[in-house]
Design a protein that fits this description.
Radius of gyration: 17 Å
Strand content: 15-25%
Largest sheet: 3 strands, mixed
Shape: elongated
Number of strands: 5
Number of helices: 8
Helix content: 40-55%
Distance between the termini: 21 Å
Number of domains: 1
Length: 163
């Protein structure tokens, strides 16, 4: 569930690597960054179903559990090994959890994206904005002027972007 764009929100920002030397300055509402980072951490670090369920945000865990219910499959037992096959089918299409870079289209004012960003197309999942990290100070100033409080937290942003 993505956080809607609203002024007076605290956003975290940081630089992520997009393969090779390509980088992107990413802005994420802080609660959304924490949620996405928790999901990615649960997926990457869980050894058992119990590990996974303890680490997942409640609403997102319900989304995973609903897949079992809809498919009339029993839930894994706590000691079952965690496998990505437990995740919603959208995970395999790159549509779950939310892709933070693409969600900037909703989180960052379009005027800022137009002025400082370029749109990068993908073969399957639509386009996403690239913000030049060398213009960080200008972009942060524009976000602040638009009513957003911005705080640099590269570790959290990388976690939210699964890096």
């Amino acid at each position: 569930m993505a956080t809607p764009l609203k002024a007076k929100s605290t956003y975290v920002f940081g630089v992520v690597t997009r393969g090779g030397d390509e980088t992107n300055l990413v802005f994420i509402p802080e609660p959304e960054a924490r949620r996405l980072a928790a999901i990615h951490q649960a997926i990457c670090r869980s050894k058992t179903w119990s590990d996974f369920t303890r680490q997942m945000p409640e609403d997102d865990l319900q989304e995973v559990v609903s897949r079992f219910i809809e498919d009339d499959e029993p839930l894994p037992s706590d000691e079952d090994r965690f496998v990505v096959d437990f995740l919603p089918p959208a995970f395999f299409d790159g549509d779950w959890p939310d892709w933070a870079e693409q969600k900037m289209l909703h989180w960052v004012p379009s005027a800022i994206l137009r002025k400082y960003g370029i749109m990068m197309p993908t073969a399957i999942n639509g386009s996403y904005p690239i913000l030049d990290p060398s213009r960080k100070l200008e972009i942060v100033a524009a976000m602040n002027e638009a009513g957003f409080e911005c705080r640099e937290d590269e570790e959290l942003v990388k976690g939210a972007c699964r890096q």
